[in-house]
């Protein structure tokens, strides 16, 4: 089965996205994001002792684009094409009662499946840990991986569950009143991470 292409999913016109950036301050530039992902890719290879038996699954929305980029970097490093897919966790979230209109995304599991594989879950921001908990529940309904690892671009702290990332692009201490906005070229026409809000 052909690997999914997330490159143009929900993208905006790059010119308009760059012309009207959101408020707040930039904490990661495009170059920072690129370097962070390359470091994560090297860490994954080192931890796994290669790319054998890996499956990379992005959590929609921006986790999909990050997963695709990581797989491209893994191919550069190891010369092997790692299966990539997406894992929607909407129906496994514990806030459905308070947000019943949340849109359901796509789940795509590569033909090789996840049984006895090392699954790397990819998301843009790790915050409370509840999205990752939902992802683990979703995985349990799809198969039995040998191991599950978590790679995130930003860890902003404030965990509510005992969950931690194995691979982190940037640890970013934040106040609860602040928001971390990740914008990626595939979705928003620009690569950057901004902190918005907080005490004035």
Question: In a nutshell, what does this entry contain?
Answer:
By secondary structure, this protein is of the alpha/beta class. Helices cover 30% and strands 24% of the residues. Helix 2 crosses helix 3.
Q: How would you explain this protein's 3D organization?
A:
By secondary structure, the chain is of the alpha/beta class. The chain has one domain (30-175): Rossmann fold (3-Layer(aba) Sandwich). The protein is 30% helix and 24% strand. It has helices spanning 14-19, 30-48, 62-78, 130-142, 185-188, and strands at 25-28, 54-58, 84-86, 118-126, 147-155, 167-171, 178-183, 192-197. The strands form two sheets. It has a five-stranded parallel β-sheet, sandwiched between helices. The protein has a three-stranded antiparallel β-sheet with strand order 1-8-7. β4 (118-126), α4 (130-142) and β5 form a beta-alpha-beta unit. The longest helix has 19 residues, at 30-48.
């Amino acid at each position: 089965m052909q690997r999914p292409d997330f490159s143009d999913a929900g993208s905006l016109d790059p010119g308009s996205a760059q012309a009207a950036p959101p408020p707040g301050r930039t904490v990661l530039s495009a170059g920072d994001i690129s370097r962070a992902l390359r470091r994560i890719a090297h860490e994954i290879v080192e931890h796994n002792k290669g790319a054998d038996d890996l499956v990379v699954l992005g959590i929609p929305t921006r986790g999909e684009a990050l997963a695709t980029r990581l797989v491209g970097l893994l191919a550069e490093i190891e010369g092997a094409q790692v299966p990539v897919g997406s894992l929607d966790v909407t129906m496994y979230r514990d806030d459905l009662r308070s947000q019943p209109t949340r849109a359901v995304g796509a789940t795509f599991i590569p033909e090789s499946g996840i049984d006895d594989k090392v699954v790397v879950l990819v998301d843009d921001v790790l915050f409370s840990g509840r999205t990752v908990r939902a992802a683990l529940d979703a995985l349990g309904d799809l198969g039995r991986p040998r191991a599950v690892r978590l790679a995130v671009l930003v860890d902003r702290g404030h965990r509510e569950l005992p969950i931690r990332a194995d691979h982190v692009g940037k640890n970013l201490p934040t106040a609860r009143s602040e928001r971390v906005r990740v914008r990626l070229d595939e979705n928003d026409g620009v690569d950057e991470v901004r902190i918005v809000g907080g005490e004035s």
